[in-house]
Amino acid sequence: MKIKKVSFKWSELYHAKLKRMEEAEKEAGERLKNLYQKESARKRSRQVRVLDKVPPSSSSNKRSGSNAGSKLMKKVRKEYLNCLEVKNLKAVKMKRTAQCSGLIKKPRTTLQATNVF
Length: 117
Fold this sequence. Notes:
Residues 35-73 are annotated as: Disordered. By secondary structure, the protein is mainly alpha-helical. The chain has 3 helices and no strands.
């Protein structure tokens, strides 16, 4: 101050300092507010949204099944379904369901008493 030959009163310096501090506080507050808004927007964008629309089921190709994948996967699935082990399991399952439902009757192994007299 002596070099520039300017004199200030201490109250003017104090008020200038308070003004700078208030501006710095406002800027920090604005920065925090913007950060909180960005964070809340990010959280809202990551939330699960419930859709009211039902996708049309008739437009999809039903022949490929639910696991419509590459041609190689289709080939492997077809080979698996045609293998002997799977066919045997299917036959056992069909036989078991037929027995449970009563379609196949077991032959009687007990001897029936006959009148000999």
